Amino acid sequence: QVQLVESGGGLVQPGGSLRLSCTATRRIFVIYEVAWYRQAPGKQRELVATITSGGSTNYPDSVAGRFTISRDNAKNTVYLQMNSLKPEDTAVYYCHVLTLWGQGTLVTVSA
Question: Quick one: which of 9, 34, 7 has its CA closest to 21?
Answer without folding.
Answer: 7
